[in-house]
Design a protein that fits this description.
Elements (H helix, E strand, L loop, with lengths): L1 E3 L12 E3 L4 E5 L12 E3 L4 E3 L14 E3 L21 E3 L21 E3 L7 E2 L2 H4 L5 E4 L11 E2 L5 E2 L2
Parallel strand pairs: 1-3, 2-4, 3-5, 4-6, 6-7, 7-8, 8-10, 9-11, 10-12
Amino acid sequence: MVGELPSEIGDLAQLEALELESNGISGNIPDTLSEMKSLKRLILAKNSLIGTIPYSLYDMSSLQVLSISENKISGHISSNMKRLTNLREAYFWSNMLTGTIPEQIGDLSSLDIFQVNHNQITGTMPSSVCYLSLDSLFADCAKNSAGEVKVECDCCHVCYS
């Protein structure tokens, strides 16, 4: 698939998985995805998506897997992510995300994988995230060539610079 995701994609209300990894998808993530109330897997990695994570995405309470890695997504991860109560896997790596990791991510008791490396996120990994029993926690917590650490993290499984 090449081009932008049409806003009509939200009409697929009963769809449980939308896996469009490694296509030529460009443009913004449509707000209408939130109309897909049965969606459990949203895989949009390795495309050319731009813009921010739509706030409506945080209303997708059935979502279990969210992968938007290797795009050009900017903005920040909202504290509203805590509304994704069934989320087990979150892949945000290799984008242009900024800001800090919201403390509320620690409210996601079903979360097993949280990968935010290769972004412009800074600050400290919240202790609430460290208290989760994550199988995989990746962040930019290693020193870069200038000796700086973007994300202080005592509990990360893998640290990138």
